[in-house]
Design goal:
Layout (H helix, E strand, L loop, with lengths): L5 H10 L7 H10 L8 E8 L11 E5 L10 E4 L2 H10 L3 E3 L1 H8 L7 E4 L4 H4 L3 H4 L17 H9 L2 E5 L5 E8 L4 H17 L10 E8 L5 E2 L2 H4 L3
Parallel strand pairs: 3-4, 3-5
Antiparallel strand pairs: 1-7, 1-8, 2-6, 8-9
Function: Protein L1 is also a translational repressor protein, it controls the translation of the L11 operon by binding to its mRNA. Binds directly to 23S rRNA. The L1 stalk is quite mobile in the ribosome, and is involved in E site tRNA release.
InterPro entries: Ribosom_uL1_bac-type (IPR005878), Ribosomal_uL1 (IPR002143), Ribosomal_uL1-like (IPR023674), Ribosomal_uL1/biogenesis (IPR028364), Ribosomal_uL1_3-a/b-sand (IPR016095), Ribosomal_uL1_CS (IPR023673)
Subunit structure: Part of the 50S ribosomal subunit.
Length: about 230
C-alpha cells in the first residue's frame, strides 16, 4: 500500500469522524483542506436506489447550475447550412457533418458536449459505440438533439451539466471549483441534487437517494445529510 504524503494524511485526519454533515459544513471542510497548485473541481457522487439496466429505472437529465461550473466546455455541433452558421455564431468550438463524423471515427474527440439537429442523427447514429460510452451521444431528452442549436450551445457554455446513472446506480458530476464562494457552491450543489430528485424514475422502489458524498478532485470525500442537501 502506498504511503500517504503529508498533505493527504492531513486531509484524511481533518475529514475523520465527519459524516452526514450539512452541505455548508462539507463545502467549508473541502475548501479549507484544498491546497493543490490547481483549482480543484468540487465533485458530487449520489448513490441512488435504482438499477439503470431497467429502462423504467434509468436516471438522466440536465441542470443549469446557477453559478456555472468554472470549467470551459468545448462544444461540437452536427449541423448544416444556416443551422451550422447559428451554432458557430453562438460560440460552438467545432461544427460539421460527415467531416466531423470522420474526425471522430479517426479517434479525435476534442469536445465535452455534442449537439445535433434532428436531420443529422442518421450520421451521428453511426458514432453510437464511440460517443455512447463517453456520455457524449446527443439525446433529445437532455436537449442536445434540437433545432435551436444556438440556445443549446449557450446552455452548454453557460454551466449546464448533464447527469446519467451508471451501472451501480451512481450519479457523478462536477458542481463548481474550490475557488468559488461557499454560498455559490452550496447553491450549485442543491440545484444539482434537486434536479436528480426531480428525475426520479417511475420504476424506482424503496429509498431513492441512499447516499450523497462531496469531495474535491484530489481530496477525500465526506457524506452529507440528504434532507439538508435537498433543501427540505
Amino acid at each position: 500500500m502506498a504511503k500517504l504524503g503529508k498533505r493527504a494524511k492531513a486531509a484524511r485526519e481533518a475529514f475523520a469522524g465527519k459524516e452526514n454533515i450539512t452541505v455548508e459544513e462539507a463545502v467549508a471542510l473541502i475548501k479549507s483542506n484544498s491546497n493543490t497548485k490547481f483549482d480543484e473541481t468540487v465533485e458530487i457522487a449520489m448513490n441512488l436506489g435504482v438499477d439503470p439496466r431497467h429502462a423504467d429505472q434509468m436516471v438522466r437529465g440536465v441542470v443549469g447550475l446557477p453559478n456555472g461550473t468554472g470549467k470551459t466546455t468545448r462544444v461540437a455541433v452536427f449541423a448544416r447550412g444556416p443551422k451550422a452558421e447559428e451554432a458557430q455564431a453562438a460560440g460552438a468550438d467545432i461544427v460539421g457533418a460527415e467531416d466531423l463524423m470522420e474526425t471522430i471515427q479517426g479517434g479525435t474527440i476534442e469536445f465535452d458536449r455534442c449537439i445535433a439537429t434532428p436531420d443529422m442523427m442518421p450520421i451521428v447514429g453511426r458514432l453510437g459505440k464511440i460517443l455512447g460510452p463517453r456520455n457524449l451521444m446527443p439525446n433529445p431528452k437532455v436537449g442536445t438533439v434540437t433545432m435551436d442549436v444556438a440556445q443549446a450551445v449557450k446552455d452548454a457554455k453557460g454551466g449546464q451539466v448533464q447527469f446519467k446513472a451508471e451501472k451501480a446506480g451512481v450519479v457523478h458530476a462536477g458542481v463548481g471549483k474550490v475557488s468559488f464562494d461557499e454560498a455559490k457552491l452550496v447553491e450549485n450543489i442543491r440545484a444539482f441534487v434537486g434536479a436528480v430528485s426531480a428525475a426520479k424514475p417511475t420504476g424506482a422502489k424503496g429509498t431513492y437517494m441512499k447516499k450523497i458524498a462531496l469531495s474535491s478532485t484530489m481530496g477525500p470525500g465526506v457524506t452529507v445529510d440528504i434532507v439538508n442537501a435537498t433543501g427540505n
